[in-house]
Write a structure and sequence with these properties.
It is a multi-pass membrane protein. It contains twelve helices and ten strands. The protein has about 325 residues and is an alpha/beta fold. It has three domains: about 100 residues, Helix Hairpins; about 130 residues, NAD(P)-binding Rossmann-like Domain (Rossmann fold, 3-Layer(aba) Sandwich); about 70 residues, Alpha-Beta Plaits (2-Layer Sandwich). Helix 2 crosses helix 3, helix 2 packs antiparallel against helix 4 and helix 3 packs across helix 4.
Length: about 325
């Protein structure tokens, strides 16, 4: 009965462990046998096991050699049996490694990490965002969910690819969304704007349902769907159409030589906007006095949020009050 349990346990082990256990038992048996047959040439059990591994792997250092007839018979059996086992073990490891790498590229392997960033959709925006993260060596672990790609080479992009629809719980589970930190949902460029927004909202609902603490950044194209995206659970909504329309307007009707699009790209690539609560010490100060305070520590105060109203570059004599949020521009 004990033997049956061991046999059942053995065949329930992963193939790597089964082969490793088989090799170990085989070498242990041959090592013990040669030690018992020729104790004068193999004075202890470890010497016998060492000889078995060296011979079975066809390395053959020659530091231990059987001299008796029975010892040579054992060596022949070891070469025939043990050598095949070791060779099969190494071939299985190589084949499994290649298969695992192929499965990674095809997006069929579950992600096991935590506190990672999930990208939804493989497009030009995702590629540029990934390049920015990589260039700054932020060390973030990235998981991509996309249903249009057939494969994504892991070595080239160093991100974990999960192929499938981001609205399905099974796919989200593969991306380990329950342990993710952020998710960026980009709009599908292959769909019409309204359809793309509906897909983004449905994805937001699925994400929020699987992880209530997840910070969700969603791209929405039409104004009509902004409220729905907020209701669905998006923490930040990127209104890409409004943003681009504003840039086009400024480019069309600018008077100065500075190009607003190029300038904004430069600012966003080297600076970061931060929203901080006004400290008790700064209450009652003017906007100018507070601005001077932040300039001294190499930060730029550009506006305040008061009662949900954004005030960019307010009058210098504006008195700051309790509850104000400061909009700060600082270096990355």
């Amino acid at each position: 009965m004990n033997f049956y349990k061991f046999w059942e346990f053995y065949f329930h082990l992963p193939v790597f462990l089964r082969l490793l256990l088989t090799v170990s038992i085989t070498m242990l048996l041959f090592g013990a046998t040669i030690h018992l047959i020729e104790p004068q040439h193999f004075p202890n059990l470890f010497d016998g096991i060492w000889w078995a591994f060296v011979t079975g792997s066809t390395v053959g250092y020659g530091d231990y050699v059987p001299l008796s007839t029975w010892g040579k018979v054992i060596a022949i059996l070891l070469i025939l049996a043990g050598g095949g086992v070791v060779t099969f073990y190494m071939a299985t490891i190589s084949a499994s490694t290649i298969k695992h790498e192929q499965n990674l590229s095809k997006g069929s392997i579950n992600y096991k990490g935590k506190n990672h960033i999930v990208f939804v959709g493989w497009n030009e925006r995702t590629k540029q965002l990934l390049d920015m993260i990589t260039k700054r060596n932020l060390g973030e672990q990235i998981v991509l969910i996309d249903k249009t790609l057939n494969q994504l080479p892991y070595q080239k992009h160093y991100i974990h690819f999960v192929r499938g629809d981001a609205t399905e719980d099974e796919v989200l589970s593969k991306a380990n969304i329950q342990e993710a930190k952020y998710v960026v949902i980009t709009s599908d460029p292959s769909k019409k704007e309204r359809q793309a927004d509906q897909t983004s909202i449905l994805t937001t609902v699925a994400m929020r349902g699987n992880n209530p603490n997840l910070y969700i950044i969603a791209e929405i194209l039409t104004k009509e769907q902004l409220t729905n995206a907020t209701r669905a659970g998006a923490d930040t909504i990127i209104r890409s159409n409004d943003f681009m329309s504003t840039l086009f307007f400024n480019e069309l009707f600018r008077d100065a030589s500075v190009k607003p699009f190029d300038l904004l790209l430069e600012v966003l690539s080297s600076q970061q906007f931060n929203q901080i609560k006004l400290s008790k010490e700064m209450e009652g100060y003017t906007f100018l006095e507070c601005s001077d305070h932040y300039v001294a520590i190499e930060k730029l105060l550009i506006g305040i949020i008061r009662e949900d109203e954004l005030m960019l570059n307010p009058p210098f004599d504006t008195i700051l009050k309790n509850g104000d949020l400061l909009i700060i521009l600082s270096r990355l």
